[in-house]
Amino acid sequence: MEFVSLLAQAQKLVGISATDQYLALTLKAASAWPEALDSVDVDNLLDNYADSLGLPVSLTRPREERARLRAGRNEARQTEQQLELLQKAADLGRTLADSSLTVEGEKSSVLQVLADLASRAVPPGAAPDPGTTPEGGRP
Fold it and tell me: What's the pTM value of the predicted model, to 2 decimals?
């Protein structure tokens, strides 16, 4: 057990008041200038606040564990965003497959027309098939 004098405890509590004021000002400023939040090192702020209150160190996670938790959340967020994009792509594909289009009197899906066009496309720099016209058809 560590003895902390009353004066030392009072000095730490003064620091808490200053921290509260700083954080309040930062949050107010952030409503007009969001970049104001960039100035706050939240980990240090909270660690110092807990220390000033005299809380045991065991109440806060070690920085390495915090980093792992944040990395896990970021990875989960990225996976969720990728799944949303895949779902949108699948929905678009379904819409294109269900949408009909008549080309040269022949009715087919928009997706099939796009696939046909893509199969006839010549990559840049590649020589066209001598048996086709520039439009992609046979002479």
Answer: 0.55
> Which domain covers residue 44, as residue numbers?
1-60
Residue 116: which H helix or E strand, with range?
helix 110-120
What phi, psi does 107 have (nearest 5°)?
-90, 130
Tell me the pLDDT tens digit for each residue of 7-19.
Answer: 777 777 777 888 9
3-state secondary structure 73-100: HHHHHHHHHHHHHHHHHHHHHHHHHHCE
End-to-end Cα separation, the chain, in angstroms: 95
Residues 6+ apart with CB under 8 A from 110: 96, 97, 99, 100, 101
- pLDDT at site 44: 93
The answer to whether residue 136 sits within a structural domain is no
* 132 falls within a domain: no
Mean pLDDT over 25-44 rounds to: 95
Query: Considering the domain boundaries, does residue 92 fall inside one?
Result: no
